[in-house]
Amino acid sequence: MLQARLGFALPRYVLYASSFCGAGAYVFAKREINRERQAKEEAKRLKKHQNKTLESILQDNGPAAAREDIAGSPSQEGSSDPAPTRHAPTTEQQQVDEKSKFESRTPFRSPKGDRFS
Question: Which UniProt keywords are listed (predicted)?
């Protein structure tokens, strides 16, 4: 069958030797892949261990001091505005009547009048 495909006959030992070489190459490649995987897993395990150690050291030092800087907190920054533009409404009617700083106090009236009348 092989002879028909190749057009000539190969001695059996050549076939066995090539099979053996292929199997040997596979085994060596597989060992190298396994070594690389082990090295990656070892590095990952070591990094995880270092992170846990660092976390435990930070936890052993006790709670951190309260932050004085409010630069990253807009809710705290808003209450410390240097010059608020308006005072808070005191009565419920003032709350209803109050407009935002972006709304006009008076409705817009065209100087030319209503074009539909």
Answer: Membrane, Transmembrane, Transmembrane helix
